[in-house]
Write a structure and sequence with these properties.
By secondary structure, this protein is an alpha+beta fold. It folds into two domains: 93 residues; 135 residues, Alpha-D-Glucose-1,6-Bisphosphate, Chain A, domain 4. It is built from six helices and six strands. The chain is elongated, with a radius of gyration of 23 Å.
Amino acid sequence: MKTIQSLVILLGFIALLAVAASGPLYESGSLSLGVAFSVLRWAAYIAIAAFLLNIILYVVRRPRGAVAGLSVLSIVAAAVAFYLPYSFYQTAQSVPPIHDITTDVTDPPKFVAIAPLRKDAPNPLEYPGSDTAQQQLEAYPDLETYTTNEDANAVFAKALQVANAMGWEIVESNEDEGRIEATATTTWFGFKDDVVIRVQEVEGETHLDIRSKSRVGRSDVGKNAERIRAFLAQL
């Protein structure tokens, strides 16, 4: 019985380790994206089993001392191991399966300097079109062009400052063209998302538009919209 309890305790930690390692293993190239997601899914299943079995054995066996502490830690580890992929899945189900988000769906800012960096990316550089635009407008109606009476050069400088503050890798900053291009890397899986910012004068106002596009994945799980909101809030 002690051996069984030890194995059950170990399961909780294995599940958490598998969840934590899936992202870095994908980022390092050791796992493909499909395999990494399969690891997440199976880790969640193991976590459920470990959580329930640990609780049952804790009630039945009433362990003491170190075993009791390890049982509790295993229950917590299993809960975390289940919650992370489950919350990821829930978020994915709550947003449209798109990966190219912009504040101007009619005339999205264009990537120039970043184009060569995306030559091998599964998602093409071009804007997907009206279907993506419609899905974005329904899901993220708050994402609109930022307008101000400030001087365009001042807005450009602020935009560059915010982009740097957000930890993006600046690929090009062209003040004459009012264009900033950068790459943002997500935590955990290290996904590369590209960002282009356009600052221009329109009828006496300064307009700033921003576009964030994932290199891989049909859905961005809402990350690009979240990034644009964060940028505009800081701006």
